[in-house]
Specification:
Blueprint lengths: L12 H18 L2 H11 L3 E2 H8 L5 H11 L3 E6 L2 E6 L2 H15 L1 H15 L1
Antiparallel strand pairs: 1-3, 2-3
Length: 123
């Protein structure tokens, strides 16, 4: 992990190209609001398609389309039980990014602190 921007000079740029390509593919897979909502729900644990539809408000066929993208990107895995298909997060990288996004955009305490800080700067 880079602690100082000057450390980037010592990075192997060929390795960085490969890493940048992988990171770009992951971010592209996450770049749709519905896919982010689905992953936010799946961070809480495995869920069936019907429950995902109810909790996220995403309707068929959009739900199936977005789950298909996540499956194709290997960010989620599936398990069949009878007629139901259950989804869960399969990518540690995606889970790590979702945690960061949660801290930046969803964590209640941080949101309140940011609002208070910006209000005090205006005063």
């Amino acid at each position: 992990m880079l602690n100082n921007i000057n450390e980037i000079e010592s990075v192997d740029f060929e390795a960085l190209k490969t890493s940048a390509s992988k990171a770009s593919a992951l971010l592209k897979s996450l770049s749709h609001p519905d896919r982010l909502l689905l992953l936010c729900q799946l961070v809480q644990g495995e869920s069936c398609v019907r429950d995902l539809e109810v909790t996220t408000g995403i309707r068929q066929p959009s739900l199936s389309q977005q789950l298909g993208v996540l499956r194709e990107s290997e960010l989620v895995s599936t398990r069949r039980e009878g007629r139901q298909i259950f989804y869960s997060i399969a990518s540690d990288d995606a889970l790590s990014v979702m945690r960061v996004l949660y801290q930046l955009y969803c964590a209640p305490q941080q949101s309140e602190d940011k609002n208070k800080q910006s209000q005090s700067q205006v005063s």
